[in-house]
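Researcher: Before we compare anything, I want clean individual predictions. No alignment, no superposition, just each chain on its own. First chain goes here; please echo the sequence and then give the structure tokens.
Model: Echoing the first chain and its structure:
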Amino acid sequence: MMFYRYISENLTNYINEGEIEAGNTGFDYAKLSDEDAEQAREDLVKTKGFFILPSELFCNVRKKAANDENLNMTLEAAFAHIEESAKGNESEDNFAGLFDDIDVNSNKLGATVAKRNANLVKLIGGVANMGLGNYKDNSIDAFGDAYEYLMSMYASNAGKSGGEFFTPQEVSELLTRMAVAGKTEVNKVYDPACGSGSLLLKAAKILGKENVRQGFYGQEINLTTYNLCRINMFLHDIDFHKFDIAHEDTLLSPQHWDDEPFEVIVSNPPYSIK
């Protein structure tokens, strides 16, 4: 849900800034009709990697959420349309299946549609009320940091299994600083067992993402964790053409042979698996 809010705001800000620079000072993409917005679909998918209709932006879904008896279907459709917008384009692999792990019809949300929707309204409200500001103003990666904080809380509660996808910040920082010691920039960073991507993103934080010139590469066997990693990239404002995360067994089916050499390789592999 945080990711949904983020990409909605990211796209809206990008379009609004362009219109304001062109002299259209009162423009707001969120208030545009879906029909008018469609004209920009092709260009936006090429530059941003995805497209969202104004009616399906997080802020507009939130406004109607409390009175939307079909909120679960509204969200399901919005998520499907975001993924579909990237199909057949360069960004397809980065968006495919990203929303697979949010099941708006799960019985865990409630026994009836009404109860499930009531909890979805609370969830949307909670994410909307996070004081993350305008992502462009955040030198501290507020979206990404909030996401990693939530993941660290989940990992610590999950005990052993949490270690499969989350490396504590202190460990990430120490390992990455050792790997990039003496460097001010690198060509690319690779993690063969990347989990949710915390080691890759530490390199972006320590060096500055513009100083990882050719981007971030990783491989992850667990589908949910693979999705977490791709979301983590977006929430840290890494553009779709600057990361390549693969979903395969690295030992049996390594996916990045053609991308070598990597100047920096970092990893906290699943050493405890028998």
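Researcher: Okay. Second chain, same rules.
Model: Second chain and its structure:
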Amino acid sequence: MINKSRNRRSSPRDLVTTTAPAVLIVIVAFWVAYQFVEPAPPNTIVMSTGAEDGAYQTFGKKYRDLVSDSRITLELRTSAGSLENLSRLTDSGSGVSVALVQGGIASAEAYPGLQSLGTVFNEPLWVFYRGSRVLDRLTSLKGMRVSIGPEGSGLRFLAMVLLEANGMLEPASGYLDLPTGEAADALMSGNVDAVFVVAAVESETVQRLLRAPGVRLMDLDRAEGYGRKFPYLSPMVLPQGTVDFGRNIPERDTRLLVSRANLVARSDLHPALIYVLLDAAEQVHNRSGLFQKAGEFPSGKDTDLPLSDVARQFYKSGRPFLQRYLPFWIAVFIDRMVVLLLPLVAVLLPVFRFLPMIYTWRVRSRIFRRYGELRYLEQEIDTGFDREKVSEYLEQLDRIEEAVNRSHTPVTYSDLMYNFRLHLQIVRDKIRARESF
């Protein structure tokens, strides 16, 4: 009864010794696959923008509203401008991972840890001044009280480049560093003679200055030359009357310079978040305007920094397939699981295919081992039977039979047990037959 009970069950040892290597292989495969799985994206992005009343902050707020649909929190931090934004991006302790940066300021050599997500809009450079005389060259501002923007701003950087090109950096102390809003107020009140402004035409400051009595917009007659000398600047004409046809603003075709604002990110920004940001940028910037065509932005062309691989893929084919039709977090989870599960499936299929074969081999091998002992005994009987050893032969058969009975053989392999017992009986009968002669 004991032997029969044992034979009805699979041996725990068989299961363990058979499955343990398979489990180990699966664990190793899981660990290897996990090394290639992107960590889950954080649910907060910190973005450095610009002045509180500036275009960068305005666009940042629009981004914030759009990415919230993906359950992403976009935290905005105002700044003095593009240079401070770049400084924050390069400082890993700042927490800032993305920013808007004025064109022409950043380079791969100076900021190797940053990448561009594309250019997002054209930023005109406006030079406003007071006076009845029409000015069309920056050299005309010599000796005037000119505000060129605060330290750390992209405006100041661009103004200094243009002033230096005109030999007007001496004395540098003559230039004021007022924020754009304060500079506009000072110009309208007569406390400064000219101001540089980099802002969209829709900005409140630009609109005020365009309509302010006694304030003129400079028509840069050498805009084409500046564009040739500085590749990040492009000449562009603001046609007469396009700001306000009723009041004919501007009063004549006006040549301006524009730079392309870049959406810049740290190289370790999660790829899934890049797609979310670019999707928001596309919704914000793809409309037509006075300085851009519909669909012109965002763009992967003419970036100051190397374009992110993820951004390049976005401009080629848009958001990933799953993110187009599923909520963001569900799509990201499925993407991560696919990367994890595909290698596991590739390992599991052959493992589970061969596992039953290995288990069968282990069960059968114990009985086949006894067949070897039985065959050896039978050969001894056939070649040199000794009547004096009959009891020894029979005892040896009993030991073989007992060893087989003690083995744990599942019920599905019972035929092996019964066949072996039959063969044992054949050899036992042969010994009895030889003994009787």
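Researcher: What stands out in the second chain?
Model: Residues 328-384 form the longest helix (57 residues). Additionally, The first strand starts at residue 44 and ends at 48.
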